[in-house]
Amino acid sequence: MPLMPVRTPLPNRPVALVTGSTSGIGAAIARRLAGDGFALVLHSRSSAQAGQALAQELGAAVYIQADLAQDAERVRLVREATAAWGRLDVLVNNAGISQVIAHADLAAATPEIWQAMHEVNVIAPFRLVALAEPALRDAAHGGRPACVVNISSHAGVRPKGASIPYAASKAALNHMTRLLALSLAPAIRVNAVAPGLVDTPLTQSWVQAQQLWRERAPMGRAARPEDVAQAVALLLASDYLTGEILLSDGGLNLT
To answer: Partner of 156 for a Cys bridge, out of 14, 49, 170, 198, CB 3.0 to 4.6 A?
Structure first.
């Protein structure tokens, strides 16, 4: 695929790359960051039309298509994202995959499913951080630390989730977040947001989960994508927080 055209750097305007940002949580994060003054690099694996439309909606935004299961595509994404606006201040690792498998059905959780889940949910975020590190360090020279936010899941904290491979991949992402926070400080802060159930078109059919959040969560509902975006914005606004896994589950963990 051809390189993105280099845009004119925006003086004093930070730039954020948000993976998986053409719908759902990722799109909500992109819209929130645009409203907070960020220039955006949007990404998805396949929905180019939605990506281009969102970029046009946000104004200071470009879209790049890449398959994060492929390392060459990760390299290209970071290279083009860094070139797009001439800097990179924030990386939000939102893209991920899941598959519903009953936890007791061990035979259904095949090695292929484990490998695919680990590749996209763990290896890809790590590689994107490693590839983006030079640009993030350069951005931090302006005074404020650069920042990475990984979108995890409460399934990585509690024995829950769509499947055991999914929950284990998010637990790995959480621990990786803490390890990277230690390794990259003080120039780059690394945190994670761990949502519980989030209202999206996909989860509307999850009747039992919806009922659980209505009846057991202190806030009485599942999260909206905008709630997760607000948690990301909170972590980005701090110059001090690092290594945090911010649960965003409406207090369900308390019950």
So the answer is: 170
